Amino acid sequence: MASELISVRNLRVSFGSDAGTAKVLDGVDLAIRAGEIRGLVGESGCGKTTLARAILGILPRNSARIESGEIRFGGRDLLTLPESALASEVRGREIVYIPQDPSTAFNPVFTIGTQIDDLMRFKSPLLRGGADDRQGFFNSYPRERRAADRARVLELLRLVQLPNPEAVLRKYPHEVSGGQRQRLMIAMALLPEPKLVIADEPTTALDVTVQAQILKLLKQLARERGVAVLFTTHDLGAAYEICDRITVMYAGQEVEEAPVDGFFERPSHPYTRKLLDSLPSSEAGIRGIAGEIPRLIDPPPGCRFHPRCERATGICRTERPPPEAVDALHSVRCHHRLSATEPAS
Amino acid sequence: MSAAETILEVEALRKYFPVRNVWKRRIGWLRVLDDVSFSVRRGEILGIVGESGCGKSTLGKTLMGIHTASAGRVIFEGHDIAQLKPHQSRRFREHLQYCYQDPGASLDPRWTIRSSLHEPLVVHTTLPEPEREARVREILRAVGLPETHLDLYPHEISGGQQRRVGLARILTLKPSVVILDEPTSGLDVSVQATILNLLLSLREQFGLTYLFISHDLSVVRMICQRVAVMYLGRVVEIGDTEAIFSAPRHPYTQSLLAAIPRIGGPRVTDSFALEGEPPSPTALPSGCRFRTRCPKAQKRCADEDPVLRADWERQEAACHFAT
Ligand SMILES: Nc1ncnc2c1ncn2[C@@H]1O[C@H](COP(=O)(O)OP(=O)(O)OP(=O)(O)O)[C@@H](O)[C@H]1O
Ligand SMILES: Nc1ncnc2c1ncn2[C@@H]1O[C@H](COP(=O)(O)OP(=O)(O)O)[C@@H](O)[C@H]1O
Ligand code: SF4
Ligand code: SF4
Ligand SMILES: [Mg+2]
Ligand SMILES: [Mg+2]
Q: Which span out of A172-186, A205-219, A321-335, B119-133 was modeled with the highest average pLDDT?
């Protein structure tokens, strides 16, 4: 599709260890449009963070291996792009990352202001296309650009509703609250004017009231600036709040992709249905999903969900289901998908 | 109030931590628990909810004697245990157990699951080895773990299984009240459901009373009979779960409930209004501690600290203007 901003095709990533090779991403397809907020949901260990890191080119070098696939972005394949180009043109510029654990994103020994200066020195949007684009450690940071950057920073800190931005810049990371640190992360992510923000469980550590504030902010800024967001979470309520479309992953494979309303009203994959059923609700009580998440070192062949699926038949044990369209925007990988009229299990 | 027997009574409990400057001189107090009062009935599940840092874990640890109370009374099974030194209160507190927020923290990584489960029995009882082993196996079965897990180390089992071991450790001492600190935080929905069902069945089986600390309000609504809402070291509202969820009286409880995403309903992010974050417990505002964020605050709120009023049939709230 022409309007696709990024498209991941048949991505396979494995991690080697003493115990064997874990196939952590196994043939993942995912395409995100410009300006779209896409939810990536699934239980912990299903590969959400690994996918995010693969897109950014920051998988751990010594243990991770990309077995196959491509990640098309701006007419190029990020997987074959040289690291120098990735570092100077894409990562932290056009694609930015809000990591799962914000405490690791800041260096505790420098003030927030110093860290933002360092970011802007190399990733400022004013650099785009300019002569000093290629970064070097001893690069100068011209006075005018620094002043212009500083003005932008203050503007964004105000936009994310940080009270008294000048004072925040003088603080150390541990001196601001969790909610404020998350606001800072969002501001810093938006500073380079990226096209895609990857937000990895950005509100998992926050309370509901602060979560609501942060989600609201993320949604508003993405809309206003036309930025696409890949929002990974295992909180379906948070996904419901801000996403346009949702992709479900199970054990390293995407299994369903749907617009947010279709996702919650007409789940077509048995796993999606069970995920929704396991949300605590007063009508249904507390229901888990029987069985366990498979080990990725020797995952079940065919559909990886088959050992836990009541609908499984012979073909499920041998063949991974291809994507099938439920409607124009909704697709599912299941040999025996649920029909829209089927009652809840 | 119903006639159900009170098993734990907390009266004006305080826990202040000193704030010191670089020369170790005390320059103020962090008022983490500030006159907390409530009672727990035998057999119930009382939820304790509130934002991060409001003092939930400190409350649990102070009840347990892990922290010594600065003031107030904690009456457990008829004895005031608030000011007792740990060795004096051990006899009473054996029946009051605390399940840590971080299951990793309560399991020693160098010990097998078997050693972790034997340890409380070695410390608190004089049971001989074979009887300890029998008790450990019985409890392990109750929390749904296979006996083969006895020889594993904590890092070899999943997060959900670590929580089961944490629970098993506590149950070996046959407690009557268990303080569960965020027992499902960080778990996926499906694992969370298994742990919650386990907690409910253990309560039946062993006749337990729970203090259920959580900031997941949908879970609290599902499993607690009553709920206490904390804000900055104080209980601001307490009552029957249904009453509180259907008609919250305190403005803070109202904001808290308004912030929960409701799948299928209107988007919270389109309407949510509560601004800011709680102030620091070293610099509490005068009067009502919620007034810096309260949409209904008035002049009186800065002058007078509201107390819990039992003006409703099944709930109490600490707000001058709650109706
Ligand atoms: N030993 C201590 N010394 C000083 N301050 C402490 C100590 N323990 C806790 N505090 C402070 O007391 C306040 C309440 O902490 P507590 O751990 O009880 O919060 P909580 O409600 O359990 O939060 P969470 O939801 O994040 O677990 C926090 O401001 C914390 O920093
Ligand atoms: N550096 C690593 N080395 C080995 N295995 C890893 C590494 N990072 C992640 N994994 C494994 O990859 C799987 C997916 O992890 P992750 O992408 O973090 O999942 P999620 O973000 O969905 O919780 C897990 O089984 C995890 O243990
Ligand atoms: S493909 Fe088969 S096993 Fe997999 S989800 Fe569908 S029915 Fe179940
Ligand atoms: S007493 Fe005043 S500030 Fe406090 S909750 Fe009530 S209205 Fe708000
Ligand atoms: Mg992750
Ligand atoms: Mg806590």
A: A321-335
Name the one residue in this structure whose structure tokens are 């939930």.
B56
Q: In chain A, pLDDT over 90 holds for what percent of residues?
A: 50
Which atom of ligand 4 lies at the shortest distance from residue B252's CA? 5
Q: How far is CA A206 from CA A103, A177, B50, B64, B277, in A?
A: 13, 10, 12, 26, 11
Residue showing tokens 């949702």: A246
Residue with tokens 């029998």: B134
Q: What are phi and psi of A302, to 5 degrees?
A: 70, -135
Contact between A251 and A294 under an 8 Å Cβ cutoff? The reply is yes
Q: Report residues near ion ligand 5: CB below 5 Å.
A: A 48-49
Q: For domain B6-95+175-317, give its CATH number from 3.40.190.10, 3.90.1300.10, 2.40.280.10, 3.40.50.300.
A: 3.40.50.300
DSSP helix/strand/coil, B88: helix
Q: What is the pLDDT of residue A121?
A: 86
Which CATH number goes with the domain that contains A54?
3.40.50.300
Closest CB to B190 among A206, A209, A289: A289
* Alpha helices by DSSP H, B125-188: 129-142, 159-171
Q: Is the ipTM of this complex over 0.90?
A: no
Question: Phi and psi dihedrals of B172, rounded to 5?
Answer: -55, -25
CA distance A7 to chain B (A): 28
Model-level pTM greater than 0.90?
Answer: no
Q: Under DSSP, is residue A14 helix (H, G, I), strand (E, B) or coil?
A: strand
- What separation in angstroms does the CA of A212 have from each of A198, A202, B182? 19, 12, 20
B43 pLDDT tier (thresholds 50, 70, 90):
very high
